[in-house]
């Protein structure tokens, strides 16, 4: 169902009680399709799921600022905050009624600029993120001294040093209602933590050469632990860190099982780099470090000292979160997690599925529009609606609510908080929580956690290792690691030891790990081994020649691995050992691999290697590096590639430096190349021709060639398979479960036929010209329209009044003709690879 909101001019009147009445000159109404003018943008289409409809609750006048934060109290009233001004109390009109009946008044409090609000035991907790310095940033508490239902007194409980869009954010009550959870972005200094489930917050533990971000914003202040989440008592006196390693998580939310979730932001300028991480919903477990580090340092999801996300949602600007438990929505939306994306104008719906001690998710778009700058979400149990605010960065604001009017709207009884203990997932979560309770000094911790170090569930294994790291080394140190006979426990314990003991002898780690039979280790154990080596090298610098030789002898013959992630880790460790035998193999892999993220990682690993080079190897390396730079000349990742080139040239022989420097300089000015252009045209495929050709094929597809074609046709630039590739388009890992052969070929050959609203662009008519893209930023009356989602810098700023019309684009972001350079056999191989996942 497509809805367009028709918003008319409004006036404000104040009644005798001080409430502001929202009175439109003309009624605001909802019909299937009507003209619209929402937040200054003409013809804004709001798409919602069948059975739902959207209601305008209140249009915020410019005198009340731009609203970025929202919560609900026990009376069904809403509290909102202007990003640069005061707090407001909203008594929403009954569902289906005119906005005339919505009552709004400023709260009688000298506080504002809130990015976190929570009502707990009749008190209002406020997290101020002040740019104006009018109020101190931090956690405040407001109280109703006279019992009139309004909060009049305010006190600062804890000042937090940070500000801007990455400063202090959300506050929510914890499961017991007797404590609070607070989250802060990566520009907020850690407060004085009394204790916590995190081990000692150490250095960045990044061993490759540091590459500076192309944005000054990213390059400053973003030091470990990055964004963090903490627990404090209701008086804000004792603070304990729970989790860290986020970039800029704006909100946090608890599910019925008492499990905590957040929605972390990406760094859009890193798209295409090996360390790029899309926006992602994370399961916030005790002691977890989700690995955000500044510049080129973010941990990939496969590092064993971090954890994987529940879901990756592509580029965007995460804001509010809410579960649908207290809505009147139909199943499955009543059980869903809703996640708002300010930049993409969408409220995602995530159906969480228990998976071991954590969760996975199936995602969908519940609400979408361009633009729809959603800043926060709140469920109102009184009317069962999902409320949300739009605004931010000075944009005109409004309050909306999503109402369900279809079948099956009755509310379900809430299941028990911890679920059924007989369920294997619930049992796994209980075990993980038992281990998390030992993440402190505890005399029983080693006996309980040590046997779990090689558990097959990654979240349980992680919780056990963190529990061990909290214990005195006298109870489990080097001797226990060296004498542990189980390989899985030894690799996990070695990782724990190198993290927990700043004075650990490198010889201990080398002896514990290099004596293991590499071929007998699984991928988890190999990654733990490699990560322990990385941290050892990062913290202790170059190893003794004998120690480095033992590691090289263990690893070199196994490079490259079948698994691409482990291959990256092998390249990282091997190039740090000073072994001249390593360089030829790394350069050869650089030449053979087709995935640009892998190639960039190998170039990064090689850029400061000083041994093992021959004239031919160095010539090959610079040719490959120049090719990378040439292909990505206009991309936002180019500054990183330029730094790799500069480091490489510094170490090149002076006699060759001019030649290689000229080669790199030429690549930096050439036009961007596309791999597909190098292939000759074969035929203009139609869907029917492709279906017929593949239907006749009796040969088994060549999956290796299919994988190569996936890269050569630039599919991998936008799509992931098994976490390899770009995150701009949909993940294709489980494609075979969702598409028939004809459906798949239609999506490839005729991508314009069906365009998912999650990836659909918008056609803008601007002063007589047409621009196709997406609004990715909005500041006041100006928007930035990105025209190439693989390169966020490409686009232009447009004044809102210049947009004459906009509508969903009928042209897919995926270009036509990508397979027109392929023969029938090659097309069959590509499809075979896609269906194999």
Query: How would you write the strand order of the largest sheet?
Result: 1-6-29-28-27-26
User: Whole-number radius of gyration?
Assistant: 28 Å
Structural class: alpha+beta
Termini separation comes to 33 Å
- Quickly name the level 1 CATH class of the largest domain: Mainly Beta
Contiguous low-pLDDT stretches (5 residues minimum) are 1-44, 216-220, 409-422, 671-677
Number of strands: 39
For the report, how would you describe the main beta sheet? 6 strands, antiparallel
| Principal-axis shape | globular
Average pLDDT figure: 87
- Give the full name of the CATH homologous superfamily of the largest domain: TolB, C-terminal domain
Kindly state the percentage of residues in helix: 25-40%
Share of β-strand residues: 25-35%
| Count of spatially separate domains | 4
Please identify, by name, the CATH architecture of the largest domain: 6 Propeller
How many helices? The count is: 20
CATH fold naming of the largest domain:
Neuraminidase
Describe this structure in words.
This protein is an alpha+beta fold. It has 4 domains: 2-404, TolB, C-terminal domain (Neuraminidase, 6 Propeller), CATH 2.120.10.30; 555-673, Serine Threonine Protein Phosphatase 5, Tetratricopeptide repeat; 678-757 and 815-836, Cytochrome c-like domain (Cytochrome Bc1 Complex, Chain D, domain 2); 762-808. Helices cover 26% and strands 25% of the residues. The strands form 9 sheets. Strands 1-6-29-28-27-26 form a 6-stranded antiparallel sheet. A hairpin with an 8-residue loop joins strand 37 and strand 38. Helix 6 runs parallel beside helix 8, helix 11 (582-592) runs antiparallel to helix 12 and helix 13 packs antiparallel against helix 14. It starts with a strand and ends with a helix. Residues 1-44, 216-220, 409-422 and 671-677 have low confidence and may be disordered.
